[in-house]
Amino acid sequence: DVCLLYGVTGATAEKLARARMASWKDVAAADPDRLATASGLKEEKARSVWLHAQAWATGKPQVRQPPTFPAGVPIHFYDIETYEGCTYLHGDVRVCGGEREEKQFLARDPSKEGDAWHGFLDYLARDKHAVVYCWATYEYRFVKRLGEKYGGNADGRRSLEGMKDQCAFIQEHFALPVSSYGIKSVAPVFDFHWKAEDAGGLNSESWYRDWIEKGDEAILRKILRYNLDDVRAMEVIDRALRDFCRRT
User: Fold this and answer.
1) Which of 143, 140, 138 is nearest to 182 (CA)?
2) Burial of 179 (0-12, 13-18, 19+ CB in 10 A)
3) What is the pLDDT of residue 199?
4) 152, 188 contact by CB (below 8 A)
5) How far is 199 from 230, CA to CA, in rounded Å?
6) What is the four-CA torsion angle of 226, 232, 238, 243, rounded to 10 degrees?
7) Distance, CA of 201 to CA of 230 (rounded, Å)
């Protein structure tokens, strides 16, 4: 159905239906100009819908505009876990040239939130010039709050102030065969899957509460693995898109 295409609302689907395009296969078989004329969609919207249909048809990314990937600097893929406003875990995958490193900074209870924050900042500050990616904007307000509350290494904080939204970067430059650009939808396009079947941010909050109450190390290991899977997914997506651009 055309509603599988990212960005197709009910109103857009109605316009496509009047143009006798009920499936993404119909859209993929058209071209952007004919699509715009037949449906009444604006040219930019028609091209976006068509590119997403091409992505579904080929099972591959479609380039919206050529991207410029960061090069020659360490890249950090960064994800946090929170519980009732407390940022209890910072997960990071650092990639620089052919080297990679995984690090996590954990507050084993909420009172250690500041220690985890300072540990992460000190680690990040080792790279005077680095690119830090997060997925969407969830991390932004928590990072700001942590800096205001605990301060910390100035170099590390500067790197986070320039944090880049990897999700927005991908949406700007690529059309993918997805209905949503949430990381749980995007990563499987590149054959990455989470180990935990119930992986999710809300579940991680529940797991952390259970950890505090029960002290079960198996629960803690599940939290740590879920967090690492999030940052590993970001790394896999980045590497796959770089490879795709080199081949095309």
Assistant:
1) 138
2) middle
3) 59
4) no
5) 9
6) -130
7) 10
